[in-house]
Amino acid sequence: MSLPRDEQEAFTQKVMAVKRAHQAELMMKANVVGVGVGFRSQKGARTEQVALVVMVSRKMPKSRLKPKDLLPLEIEGVPVDVQEVGEVEAL
After folding, report:
1. How much is the pLDDT for 2?
2. pLDDT tens-place values along the chain, 91 residues long
3. Cα atoms in the Cβ-side hemisphere of radius 13 Å centred on 76
4. Range of the domain at 66
5. Is there a domain that residue 12 lies in?
6. Would you report the helix, strand and coil content of the chain in percent, each value rounded to 5?
7. Number of folded domains in the chain?
8. Whole-structure pTM value
């Protein structure tokens, strides 16, 4: 179920504000190579839910990460979607 257009736009603005406020701290976590705003993915398919997208070089089991490197499920009411993108290199 999707939100009405004006609510979706307001939520997208909130997600962008959360990204600006938390990007630096998220980038300090292990494997994190980028932070953006995008659509959440579930089981490899894109949904219509806007989320804070945290890109990691490789997804790892929680048991292999230090507690300080665990990513939250949400920040300030905004869902966090962790997406594996591989290594990122500047060209």
Report:
1. 66
2. 566 888 888 999 999 999 999 999 999 999 999 999 999 988 888 888 999 999 999 999 999 999 999 999 999 999 999 999 877 777 7
3. 13
4. 5-84
5. yes
6. 30, 35, 35
7. 1
8. 0.87
47 inside domain: yes
CA distance 34 to 46: 19
Identify whether 90 is part of a domain: no
- Residue 86: name the closest of 66, 62, 61, 59 by CA: 59
Q: What is the pLDDT of residue 86?
A: 79
Q: What is the pLDDT of residue 71?
A: 96
Domain assignment present for residue 89? The answer is no
Q: Which CATH number fits the domain that encloses residue 64? A: 3.30.300
> Which of 6, 5, 23, 1 lies closest to 78, judged by CA?
23
User: Is the alpha carbon torsion for 34, 58, 83, 25 positive or negative?
Assistant: negative
Token pair, residue 55, equals: 């890109």
